[in-house]
């Protein structure tokens, strides 16, 4: 019956309302195959033509798709069916051949993490630098804890505080700690007591160049409470205290730090540095100092270096020539001790630090900061950026009641020490020799 056929067709065909819902929610239904589109013949030029009538669809054919609903004004446009409408998929997120597809990926497996050799190298370098700093600071700190102390603070009235810092260096001829065989080898003799073979002032100004001043050991000066005598007698009579007091009264400078080294300690420091290279201006043969040196530059071991700086009789300039060699030796020691060959050599650095600690004695009030400043000043002088000089002398062979002595030039010496007391070293070059 036609009515039955129509009723059957209603069960197969979706209503227009249901088709709209399918389009909106992306649902799919089984649809019958649409009727093939009929090809209309090309229009003939027969004058005005009427629009062809749309053939009536058969009873079983689906209705033509309706136009999408119009979007009200002010709302975003609704996409056409199938355009940009996501489909519900239980496999979300989308699966690639080897796993989930990640944003920006191609669905492949996750690439391995990159190694960072640069960062590892930097960390290793940082650790090595820290270990080097600990070594360079820790070894001197340990050595400083082993340094001996002496009472060097003089009694009585002293000069007032002055700009910069003045450090007194003393080379003692004490045989303390040396056996008979060592005394014979070093040529020191077996004289008892202690005297000073070397007396130097290291001055570090607030600004400007540092200066190293030699005071000849035979300088004829006033020793407080003991009248006129050679300056090294002050050390023999009253030790470091009286020597500091004598130097302060003779120069007008306040001594801020004190250090002394004996024969054995001097040899140990030179040997710890594997010797010191010195340029000998002329051949030297001196039985008293056990020296037999050729002219020219050569490396001196500890024993030979000690004889070289102590030699006086074979030097035509006597004590003045000796203080010049002492300053040259001290500058060479400071330069080699501060060189990378020493600082970066663990064995040599350790040997030098421990040998220096056992070789020197410092004043009770001398701090590690005082010693560091003196060492820095010596390093600057050894690099040629400072002054090395001897106190001005008027008579190197003055006939005094205590024997041949060195007489200072009072006027020039006062000028020299007055400039240092003011903290001004800019004009000291004229005293250099």
From TrEMBL:
<dbReference type="InterPro" id="IPR004474">
    <property type="entry name" value="LytR_CpsA_psr"/>
</dbReference>
<feature type="domain" description="Cell envelope-related transcriptional attenuator">
    <location>
        <begin position="195"/>
        <end position="338"/>
    </location>
</feature>
<protein>
    <submittedName>
        <fullName>Cell envelope-related function transcriptional attenuator common domain-containing protein</fullName>
    </submittedName>
</protein>
<feature type="transmembrane region" description="Helical">
    <location>
        <begin position="120"/>
        <end position="144"/>
    </location>
</feature>
<feature type="region of interest" description="Disordered">
    <location>
        <begin position="1"/>
        <end position="116"/>
    </location>
</feature>
<keyword id="KW-0472">Membrane</keyword>
<keyword id="KW-0812">Transmembrane</keyword>
<dbReference type="InterPro" id="IPR050922">
    <property type="entry name" value="LytR/CpsA/Psr_CW_biosynth"/>
</dbReference>
<feature type="region of interest" description="Disordered">
    <location>
        <begin position="149"/>
        <end position="168"/>
    </location>
</feature>
<comment type="similarity">
    <text>Belongs to the LytR/CpsA/Psr (LCP) family.</text>
</comment>
<feature type="compositionally biased region" description="Pro residues">
    <location>
        <begin position="62"/>
        <end position="79"/>
    </location>
</feature>
<dbReference type="Pfam" id="PF03816">
    <property type="entry name" value="LytR_cpsA_psr"/>
</dbReference>
<feature type="compositionally biased region" description="Basic and acidic residues">
    <location>
        <begin position="149"/>
        <end position="160"/>
    </location>
</feature>
<feature type="compositionally biased region" description="Basic and acidic residues">
    <location>
        <begin position="14"/>
        <end position="36"/>
    </location>
</feature>
<keyword id="KW-1133">Transmembrane helix</keyword>
